[in-house]
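Bumping with the actual sequence this time:
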Amino acid sequence: MTHWTELKTAWPVLAVGLVLFGGSPVIAEESKGVMEQVETTAKRVGQKIEDKTKAVVKKVEEKHIGDKIEQKLKKAANKTAEGFKKAGKKIEQKLSN
């Protein structure tokens, strides 16, 4: 169960608990329709959030962002290694003179 699913189910339960324990049973019965609307809305909002999150993940995967970052890090590591090699050769030349 994802965090969004847990969130979608937690809000209506919390709201019903507040109505049942915070007001009289008559008020709870009258607000049953309201609670159903709240639950429906919470589910809809949760679904939209989940859909948008999936879309972002899909775009990241499609654009191969992870691969691009890996390539850039490898390139930077190679340049750093080349720089150390050049510096090492210059130091050796100076020490041998």
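The tokens above came from a reply further down the thread. DSSP finds four helices and no strands in the chain.
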